[in-house]
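Researcher: Quick one. two chains, 665 residues in total.
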Amino acid sequence: VTEGGFEESPDLLDRLRAGDAQAFETLVSGYQHRVFGVALRILGNRAEAEDVAQEVFLRVHRSVAAFRGEARLSTWLYGITSRLCLTRLASPGSRQARLSEPVKDDTARDPGDPAASAERGELGTALAAAIAALPEERRIVVILRDVEGLSYEEIATALDLEPGTVRSRLHRARMEIKDRLEPFLT
Amino acid sequence: MTCEHCRDLFSPLVDGELGVDARAVVEAHLAACAGCREELERFRRTVASLQGLGPERAPLGFVDRVLAAAHPAPWHRRLATRLFRPLRVMVPLQAMAALLVAGLALYVYQRNPEMQQAARHEAPAPTLPPGRSQEGAPASAPSPGASLERAPAPAGDAPAPPAARAAPEVSAARPGAASVNREQDSTGSQDGKDAWRDAAPAQGRRAKEPAVPSPAKPDVGPSQRATESKPPERDAAALGARRDGELIGAPAPAPWAAPVGPLTPVPARPPAPPVGTLTPVPAAPTAPAPVAPSVSAPAAPTAPPPAAPPAPAPPAPLAPSLGAPPASPPASPPADRPAGSAKGRTSAAAGPSARRETAVAESPPSAAPAPPGPLAKQRQEKAASQESTLAVASADATARLRVAEPTAADRALAELLRRVGATEISRRSEAGDTLVELAVPGERWPALRDGLGRLGRLDLEREPAQLPARLTLRLRISS
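Model:
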């Protein structure tokens, strides 16, 4: 199974259940950037994102034996990440730290045309700000769908939501972002 | 379809999640509504922008940190880390703990004189005359004679217990007495174990004899004791008897009680009965206390030299003798030493020789020795060589006997000794020769000398000018 460039071997889950340390290292190496990216985009703070990402993998390591495999491993990871991020967002200290660090979008860095790069940089910053301005439940859905590429069903599974709820949250999130990006879309 | 309804379906339309029928309806509306087409275009660009967001990268070392957290080190490694990792803290703490323990031990040691006493007993005494090391042997093997001898002591004499109790103060208060005490410590206890083992009976004995007043103060110094008006021979006899009793009696006094104990019974003590028959300890020929030479000699049953001259020994020399180093060599050759002069000698000067004489006098060969205990036996064997060396060095006569057949000569010598009533005190090998120390009654010395001359070629190297009552001969037998 290919997931964002990471070739997930079919027996990875079995090896993880067997306590294979090498399999766990493979899992962490393959999903570290995506888990961290989701956490960063949800939380808006790199330190918190790293803490959450580390906790995600530790939870996987502890509870992989109980994972029934009804969903994809990546879906399970995203679900854990989302729940941990929501928990972290609920803590006041985390909210204060998040507000003190403005969200920047690394996609603005482009060695090509300076004018285009600047425009994309502005768009990226505006996009990151628009995402950060979304309500948390919508933010998570749009990130999982548009950034991470999960299907509606996968998002519903990861977040334990109804597909219709996912659809409506996603649509509202996109519309809000569109409205915020209106100056860049004309 | 309204524009609002159409725009609500933009997400499924863009994501391909819209059904065929719904898609056809939406496309029909978009074909007819320019505003919705523009809105759909902006919506597509927004989604495209979202999907164009680049992937975030986890920080460097993230995998290692996760793996380290997921696979902690083994328990023993974590334990070792906890114990030894903060060396900057642990090493000073452990050093402080060691210093604290050492300081406490030193404090307790200094505050407790008994511990110091015990340490002194346990430490080897380099100045200890070897013969004294056998003193403990009879103490562990009581003899009936000893108990008989000891019986009158508390009645008529100053009891040893008070003096014994005062002994530590003596050693602490007076330097002279301290030397006595030290000597007694090293003498009265061959090793710390015996001292402690014997201390309990001694204390018990003191508890049983508390009513007897002590005419002599416990802290009487050597000079003070020396100036006492009692005849020295009586003094010596009493001391010897008492000393014998302490030596042979089962409950030996506590080591710190030894110095003063023998000295205290001087005033009221009657002449000691002949204890030679009651102190059958041939294997313990040494007098234990520094005053022993002048003490035990008169008590010998076989008319020992000190008992013969009635003149009391000058007390003055006795005092320095107590403080003199016990291991100093004999000052005068045996030939120059009259029998009675032994009393006047300092114990240190006359030490080994006098003790040897005393032991010989007190231990006739016919006397049945009290069976020494295993410990005492070991001590006897241990000190045998040194004992013989010192004793031989102070013999009255020395001779060299060259024989053709050593084995036959040994048998003949044994027969000769039996015939003349001599006693073989010690025997050892030295440089291929056999060094034998003999004790013979003075009047039988000519017979012994002649007999030895018949055994082989006898070279008499030294002979006493005046025959003592009991003569010791150092005989080197070579082939």
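The longest strand of chain A covers residues 2-3.
Researcher: Thanks, that's what I needed.
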